[in-house]
Amino acid sequence: MSLGIFGGSFDPVHNGHLFVAEAVREACGLARVLFVPTRQANHRTMPLSAPAHARADMIRFAIAANTAFALDESDMADDATGFTADLLPRLAQRYPGEELTFIVGGDSLVHSHWERLDTILDLLAAFVVAPRGDVTQTELDAALADLAPERRAKVRYLDLPLVAESATLIRARLAERRSVRYLVPEPVFRYIKEHGLYQ
Q1: Helix (H, G, I), strand (E, B) or coil at 133
Q2: Chain mean position to CA 69
Q3: How far apart are alpha carbons 116 and 95 in whole angstroms?
Q4: Which DSSP state fits 38?
Q5: What is the CA angle 35-40-45, rounded to 5?
Q6: How many angstroms separate the CA atoms of 186 and 181, rounded?
Q7: In DSSP terms, which residues pair with 31 in a beta bridge?
Q8: 16-22: which pairs have CB atoms within 8 A and are 24 or more residues apart?
Q9: Does this model's pTM top 0.85?
Q10: Which residues contact 40 (CB under 8 A, 6 or more apart)?
C-alpha cells in the first residue's frame, strides 16, 4: 500500500492543507494520507503558536469526514527531533512494507533548510512538491540541484491550482480579531473560537 506523509506544524490546519492532501492522494494513487504534525518546528524562527495537543485535535476534527486521511502523532513523541530524516524510519517501522510518499509545499522546499535531504529521499518511494506561494520553477530546481540523478528522479512536481490560504495569514487575522471562517474547516473554526487560540 502507498502512504502519503504530510508533515508540518499545522498551526493551524486549514482548507489549503486538505486540498493539497486530497489532490496528491488522487494524482499519486495513494491509499491514505497521514497528517503528521511536528512537536517542534526546526524551520521556524518563531515558536509554534498553539500547543501540540491542540494542533493534533484540530487535524483530527478537520479530517474526520475523509476515510482516506489519518492523523499520525509519531513526530509529537517526547524524543522526536522534528527532523524528517529522523521521522521517516519511525514511520517505516510503524507501517512495514508500505511505500512512503512525502508531500511538501514548494515554499517549504525552497525557504527551509532541509537537513539530510539525501537520506530523506533514500527512505521514500516519491517526494511530491505542491505549488505554494510565489516560488518559481527555477528556485525549485536550484533547491534540488545537488541531488544525484537517482534521487532527483524521485521528485515529482504536481500541477495544482495555487492555494492562497496559509497558516501565517490565518494567525495574523486571528491576532487582529478578524474572521477566518471558510479559510479553515468549520470544526477547526469552532475549536479555535472555543479555546481562544491565536488571540
Answers
A1: coil
A2: 13
A3: 22
A4: -
A5: 115
A6: 7
A7: none
A8: 16/163, 16/164, 16/165, 16/166, 17/62, 17/165, 18/62, 18/63, 18/66, 18/69, 18/185, 19/160, 19/163, 20/103, 20/105, 20/130, 20/160, 20/163, 21/69, 21/103, 22/66, 22/68
A9: yes
A10: 48, 80, 81, 82
Domain residue spans of the chain: 2-164
Contact 34, 2 (CB under 8 A): no
Instruction: Say how far apart CA 132 and CA 82 lie, in whole Å.
Output: 22
Query: Following DSSP, what letter does each residue of 143-169 receive, concatenated?
Result: HTTTS-HHHHTTEEE---PPP---HHH
pLDDT digits (tens, 9 = 90+) for 7-44: 999 999 999 999 999 999 999 999 999 999 998 766 55
What does the mean pLDDT of the chain come to?
Answer: 91
The architecture that CATH gives domain 2-164 is 3-Layer(aba) Sandwich (3.40)
CA 140/CA 142 separation, integer angstroms: 5
Under 8 Å between Cβ of 18 and 187: no
